[in-house]
Amino acid sequence: MLEVQDLVVRYGSAVALDGVSLVVHEGEMVALVGPNGAGKTTLVKAISRMLPVAGGSIRLGGSVAQVPEGRQLFGDMSVEDNLRLGGWASGRRDPAPIYDLFPKLRDLRRRDAWTLSGGEQQMVAVGRALMAEPRLLAVDELSLGLAPLVVEDLARHLVELNRSRGMAVLLIEQNARLALDICERGYVLEAGRVALSGSCAELRQNQAVQHSYLGGTVA
Ligand SMILES: Nc1ncnc2c1ncn2[C@@H]1O[C@H](COP(=O)(O)OP(=O)(O)OP(=O)(O)O)[C@@H](O)[C@H]1O
Ligand SMILES: [Mg+2]
Q1: Is the entire prediction scored with pTM above 0.90?
Q2: Ligand 1 — pocket residues by CB below 6 A?
Q3: Which residues surround ligand 2, an ion (CB under 5 A)?
Q4: Domains, the chain, ranges and CATH?
């Protein structure tokens, strides 16, 4: 579904990704964790072709959509218009499937996006990405600024979409515990390089991962 090989991305002379290799197989959920500034958002932007690549390659075996960091909704547009934008390129105009998935959004559909709570906005951001019916969904910081229960609910939806539609998910999450719980494999990105990778079960048991990302406790 996605094969990133020896990827190098620079901002001017600063190297943000320094030879990153990563794979997401068809229908797989893959976690990407790492500290602030590691290059996670840069990787998602490169995969979405929003940034030029200075070296290496990105191969996609199907369509990709992203839930961008900070959601990036159009605040003075309605919920429904924000959703429609997500389907614009692929010609999918009907938001009804998104309302079936997130019934709350049906009630909110005429509201300007800026008036929504953070959790509601994240639902719109996820819904907007799903409008394109991507084969790979890249989620940059699902939990940013959200209450744990809201995050759990959104995470449950992602798992359900992965199981029911076989949609692959690349999940970037500061909450490493959550990411490593719901994904099958994971990568730890540090300073623009893959520091560790493996099954999430392995990563949860890894001492360095426990120390840096899981609060030092045994998972
Ligand atoms: N537009 C830009 N111009 C210059 N440097 C940038 C730009 N965007 C990001 N960077 C730098 O690239 C590095 C990687 O940033 P990136 O946003 O990818 O990190 P991240 O892992 O997503 O961090 P966070 O967890 O804080 O979101 C950082 O050092 C950052 O300062
Ligand atoms: Mg980021």
Answers
A1: yes
A2: 11, 14, 16, 34, 36-42, 69
A3: 40-41, 69
A4: 1-62+136-219 (3.40.50.300), 73-134 (no CATH)
How remote is the CA of residue 36 from the centroid of ligand 2, in Å? 7
List, in sequence order, every beta strand (DSSP E) within 12-116: 14-24, 29-33, 55-60, 64-67
Rounded to the nearest angstrom, the distance between the alpha carbon of 158 and the centre of ligand 2 is 19
Q: Determine contact, residues 45/217, Cβ cutoff 8 Å.
A: no
Q: What's the 44 CA to ligand 1 centre distance in angstroms? A: 11
Tell me how far the alpha carbon of residue 43 lies from the centroid of ligand 1, in angstroms. Answer: 10
Contacts of 208 (CB under 8 A, 6+ apart): 195, 196
Q: Which atom of ligand 1 is nearest to the CA of 39?
A: 18
CB contact at 8 A, 61 and 2: yes
Residue among 13, 41, 48, 72 to mutate when testing ligand 1 (max atoms within 8 A of CB): 41
Q: In angstroms, rounded to a whole number, what is the distance separating the alpha carbons of residues 159 and 105?
A: 19
Ligand 1 atom 7: residue of nearest CA: 11
pLDDT single digits (tens) 150-194 = 899 999 999 999 999 999 999 999 889 999 999 999 999 999 999
> Does the structure show a pLDDT above 60 at 1?
yes
